[in-house]
């Protein structure tokens, strides 16, 4: 699965680090081979909350499957350089080799200094967005996102949104069922920034308190590539088909079938983005051919352009 390397800068925010680290730790506890490393330019880093943390000064060898995560730090918009040029070159080299670079909150400023935001969409904390856009005009800073992923550069908004981004990365890499289990374990179904968009269907439609609907979503998350008749899902929930449809709509605004279709399209988009042909991606997520996938992708694009 790969290594997750956290780059720790002086005055880093603890939750920027701890939130995503908890997600990847939970993934490792689930049996995935995620190994976490913590690197810095000095062996001890004092956080913005006053707690000193230890780090390695030597970077591990990185593969394209690895993630490099840059947590935010206090006053990232200052003109002081938080990292040496050699550190910035490491970020650039990892991305150029096919790796993914992630920022939490103000960590986007370091990605901007490394040149990784040029020509890409990104986001950061709402109090930092305007300055990020002024400082890096070649970037497209989006003000209405919890996180943005663009060409293996992933940026997230305010401090706790690093959890949402890490769960999204889990969902696209390993499927929504694993991400849902981790989210449930961490008790983070509710979106902390409810007015902002979020690109993961698994998370977007889990911000409710219906145990019946959660149980059905668990089944759909686990088996979204299969045909799942409504009668079977109603049996899992131990309610009638009519009651399940009513509860599902009240909790998510969707039918069970529409929720399943969104999961399929998300997974297909991930496969297509990694070079899989549309026909093959359609079959891999459970469609008999690519016609339905093309219609659903077109509908999603139309919805996003309107919204």
Task: Give structural notes.
By secondary structure, this protein is of the alpha/beta class. Helix content is 47%, strand content 12%. It has two domains: 2-172, Rossmann fold, CATH 3.40.50.880; 208-307, Arc Repressor Mutant, subunit A. Helix 1 (14-29) links the parallel strand 1 and strand 2. Helix 1 runs parallel beside helix 5 and helix 8 (211-222) crosses helix 9. The two termini are 35 Å apart. This is AraC family transcriptional regulator. Residues 214-295 form the HTH araC/xylS-type domain. InterPro entries: Class_I_gatase-like, DJ-1/PfpI, Homeodomain-like_sf, HTH_AraC, INH-QAR. It holds the Pfam family DJ-1_PfpI.
Give a summary of the structure in a few sentences.
The chain has 307 residues and is an alpha/beta fold. The chain contains 13 helices and ten strands.
The figure for the number of domains is 2
- What is the chains' assembly state? single chain
Percent strand: 5-15%
**The CATH fourth-level homologous superfamily of the largest domain:** Class I glutamine amidotransferase (GATase) domain
Approximate helicity band: 40-55%
User: In CATH terms, what is the fold-level topology of the largest domain?
Assistant: Rossmann fold
């Amino acid at each position: 699965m790969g290594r997750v390397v956290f780059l720790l800068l002086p005055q880093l925010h603890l939750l920027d680090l701890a939130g995503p680290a908890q997600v990847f730790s939970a993934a490792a506890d689930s049996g995935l081979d995620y190994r976490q490393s913590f690197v810095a330019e000095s062996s001890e880093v004092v956080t913005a909350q006053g707690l000193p943390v230890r780090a390695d000064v030597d970077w591990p060898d990185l593969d394209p499957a690895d993630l490099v995560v840059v947590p935010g730090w206090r006053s990232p918009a200052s003109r002081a350089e938080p990292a040496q040029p050699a550190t910035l070159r490491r970020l650039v080299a990892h991305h150029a080799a096919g790796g993914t670079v992630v920022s939490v909150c103000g960590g986007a400023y370091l990605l901007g200094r490394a040149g990784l935001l040029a020509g890409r969409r990104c986001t950061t904390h709402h109090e930092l967005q305007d300055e990020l856009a002024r400082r890096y005009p070649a970037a497209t800073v989006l003000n209405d996102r919890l996180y943005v992923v663009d060409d293996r550069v992933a940026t997230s908004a305010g401090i706790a949104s690093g959890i949402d981004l890490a769960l999204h990365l889990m969902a696209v890499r390993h499927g929504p069922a694993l991400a849902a289990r981790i989210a449930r374990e961490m008790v983070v179904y509710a979106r902390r920034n409810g007015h902002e968009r979020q690109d993961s269907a698994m998370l977007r439609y889990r911000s409710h308190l219906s145990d019946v609907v959660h149980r059905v979503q668990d089944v759909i998350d686990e088996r979204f590539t299969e045909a799942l008749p409504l009668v079977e899902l109603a049996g899992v929930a131990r309610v009638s088909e009519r009651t399940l449809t009513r509860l599902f709509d009240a909790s998510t605004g969707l039918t069970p079938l529409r929720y399943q279709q969104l999961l399929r399209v998300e997974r297909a988009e991930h496969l297509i983005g990694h070079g899989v042909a549309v026909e093959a991606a359609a079959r891999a997520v459970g469609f008999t051919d690519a016609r339905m996938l093309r219609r659903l992708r077109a509908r999603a694009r139309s919805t996003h352009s309107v919204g």
